[in-house]
Amino acid sequence: MSHFLPVDLAHASRLINHGPTVLVTSAHGERRNIMAAAWSMPVEFTPPRVAVVIDKQTFTRELASASGVFGLCVPGAALMDLTYAVGSVSGRDGDKFARFGIEAARGPVLGVPVLEAGCAAWLECRLIPERHAEDAYDTCFAEVVSAAADTRIFANGHWSVREDNATLHTLHHLGAGNFVVAGSMRQAHAPA
Q1: Is the peptide bond before 48 cis (omega within 30 degrees of 0)?
Q2: Which residue, of 72, 110, 118, 187, is most buried by count of CB atoms within 10 Å of its CB?
Q3: Would residue 186 count as lying in a domain?
Q4: pTM of the model
Q5: Which long-range CB contacts under 8 A does 171-176 form with residues at least 24 apart?
Q6: What is the span of the domain harbouring residue 49?
Q7: pLDDT in tens, 83-95
């Protein structure tokens, strides 16, 4: 049973504004790929736009450039080993979805592979052509056209990080296979 519901695009930036590691999915024709990326962030609210660093030499970048679309999936703590694994091998050596037993659905707008099992959220993204940057930079800019999140951790436009949803707490890459898992949530109070 899926706990995922659509996220209003006005709140899509909140899915990655805290800097989680993401899984970038791409597909073109019969080929598909998934990789981990530590650098992603929102860059605009309306329409929602994001930036993600995808090395120009990767298979993911090749597929995303060919199709003009990609997905960003936000893995939970339960997917730490898988996140490290898909970030450590090339999709040119074979289908990582098959190799690691990853089940993916098709996003409702662009049809990109999206993951729900073990993930807190996903976003479907359409590349924004940047002619001056396509060959020079690894950073990709995209417009978010649909998003969804697991309501056990993100609902009504807000995160709810609790002990009972610890497997969905987001991952934050520190390098060399080390991650920090999002922890306790605290409410700030306005100054008096």
Answers
A1: no
A2: 72
A3: no
A4: 0.94
A5: 171/20, 171/21, 171/75, 171/76, 171/77, 171/79, 171/80, 171/83, 172/19, 172/20, 172/21, 172/38, 173/21, 173/36, 173/38
A6: 4-181
A7: 999 999 999 999 9
